[in-house]
């Protein structure tokens, strides 16, 4: 048989399969109407499992898993269509608008001159900033209501995720309501009169040390982690020690009357850090455009693939996906995902309703407005 003849037969089968697929989806819409009238859940795990087990048992040898995957994807599409029908019949979700313009109790980790302060002032121009010693204290202050809004770094364009922030996200109750980014221009600063060749230790936040590793390694400079770049600069200023230095911003160096020994020492220039603004209650602006979630999945073949297919089926643009250990002694991971959308959109509500039923654990982290630097 010639290749053209084989392809012609495949094309004919494809047309037939498409017709059957569309017929099946129409029947699924009838199922959705029935479920709606009888107040039934769209996703019924037992029914899906029965169908997939039957398909796999009836498949030709060597095609068992392929057949199961094919039908699993088709049933996922069916579930998506049913979810959309049911959600579109409901009223659009209602959320409170952010009140960031009127907020007075705002805070971040660090001290004056820290990049976190810069990010906070981009969110809240002219407002007094309350400083905390640790990222966890910022989460605690937001959850307790001590702060209306807290600002935390979450991702750096050079060194990646700020793991201290991400690992605390599952522990506290909060919602992300805005994001911005700050250009981080690191410098090496020390007391006036300090010689670069005499430095015995460099102090800074772990992310800053990572972002400037090429500079440190090339000069064989020992380094030690510190809570924050600005507090490291403050410590150097108070130390009276001309053999230690800090990696910090130039603003922090000037505020602490330190001498800048080297400027723009990041591995990659420009270097940006993304910050999130969190609050206790869900707030969604009309122009919110990034939805953040975290989830754990059942430890079984294809579980992540099925989740990723849902994003494709709903036409959603995933901007970030990463995993972190759950830190419970197991080797299980939790996934953090950002994707484009607004929670006021009914189709997003349908998607999240569909998605959470496929997860072992699910947490909606919020819907952020991206605030551009002026």
What is the number of helices? 12
Mean pLDDT: 91
Could you tell me the radius of gyration in angstroms?
A: 26 Å
Termini gap: 66 Å
Low-pLDDT residue intervals, each spanning 5 or more residues: none
Shape: elongated
Q: Give the biggest sheet.
A: 10 strands, mixed
Secondary-structure class: alpha/beta
- How many beta-strand elements? 15
Order of helices and strands: HHHEHEHEEHEEEHHEHEHEEEHEEHE
Strand content: 15-25%
| Proportion of helical residues | 25-40%
Characteristic terms for this protein:
374 residues; alpha/beta; 10-stranded mixed beta sheet; 15 strands
Secondary-structure map with pairings?
Blueprint (H helix, E strand, L loop, with lengths): L2 H35 L7 H14 L5 H25 L17 E4 L5 H9 L5 E4 L2 H10 L4 E8 L3 E2 L1 H4 L8 E9 L2 E5 L10 E4 L1 H6 L1 H6 L4 E3 L3 H11 L4 E6 H6 L3 E5 L8 E8 L10 E7 L6 H11 L4 E8 L7 E8 L5 H11 L4 E10 L4
Parallel strand pairs: 1-2, 1-3, 5-15, 7-8, 7-9
Antiparallel strand pairs: 3-4, 3-11, 5-11, 6-9, 6-10, 12-14, 12-15, 13-14
Helix pairs in contact: 1-3, 2-3, 3-11, 3-12
Task: Describe this entry's structure for a reader.
There is one protein chain. A hairpin with a 3-residue loop joins β3 (149-156) and β4 (160-161). The radius of gyration is 26 Å and the shape is elongated. α1 packs across α3. The chain has 374 residues and is α/β, with parallel strands linked by helices. The strands form 2 sheets. Strands 1, 2, 3, 4, 5, 11, 12, 13, 14 and 15 form a 10-stranded mixed sheet that branches. The protein is built from 12 helices and 15 strands. The protein has helices spanning 3-37, 45-58, 64-88, 115-123, 135-144, 163-166, 206-211, 213-218, 229-239, 250-255, 303-313, 346-356, and strands at residues 106-109, 129-132, 149-156, 160-161, 175-183, 186-190, 201-204, 223-225, 244-249, 259-263, 272-279, 290-296, 318-325, 333-340, 361-370. Helix content is 40%, strand content 24%.
